[in-house]
Design brief:
Oligomer: single chain
Helix content: 25-40%
Pfam families: DUF1365 (PF07103)
Radius of gyration: 19 Å
Order of helices and strands: HHEEHEEEEEEEEHH
Structural class: alpha+beta
Distance between the termini: 24 Å
Largest sheet: 10 strands, antiparallel
Number of strands: 10
InterPro entries: DUF1365
Number of helices: 5
Strand content: 35-45%
Strand order of the largest sheet: 6-5-4-3-2-1-10-9-8-7
Number of domains: 1
Length: 242
Amino acid sequence: MELLYLFCSILSTTFTSLVLSLLLPFRHLFRRVSTASSAEDVGNSIFLYQGTVWHERRLPVHHSFRYNVRYAFIDLDRARRHVPSDHLSGEEARRAAQTNGTVFLLTIPPSVGYEQNPLSVYYCYDVEGSTQTLKKCIAEVTNTPWGERVLFSFNPTSDLVAKPLHVSPFMDMLGNWHMQTNDPGDNLRVVISVQHPELGNYFTASLTAKRVTSLKAGDHAQFFWLMPHKVALWIYWNVSIL
């Protein structure tokens, strides 16, 4: 039954994505004739990043892989209609992080009817005088293929978090996640390593990316076209060859 469900899900996603992909040129044309003010608002509240995700497991058998990825960095207060509905709002993130400033969401937006987001991060800022300082981050982790999701806060400079959910059939639930990220600017970096009581620091995953500055606001759909599909393909492919 599980294989049948997976097969039907793949067929449904493929058909939906194909139809919506054929409609992308028309959506692009419609956005081109939209008002300049709305495009300017999106441009000032959504920043785009392009980079690489790298995974390495050193024990008990060494395996590593990397793939190219594209992320959006979204101001949750100024670009509310562009935030996927299953994520926290800016106010919800502020309450969870106990901050009072801007909240940005780093995420892979859905593309042509499909979403695949192993990790999204909320960057929560505190207002201190006339400036804002990155105070706390909230990680939103979704495991594949189970589709479970957890959220937890961490200190962006460096933090150790008890492993909150099962993320791989080749890893047990023992150990902690060491989390670290920078304040995104022209460059962005997120690093997660596993501190295991028996295997030590045996797994590391990282995202390194640069801000894309030459893309117009109306081109976001093309920029992220099939990005969630590619992430899912890389995950399932690397599980299948282990």
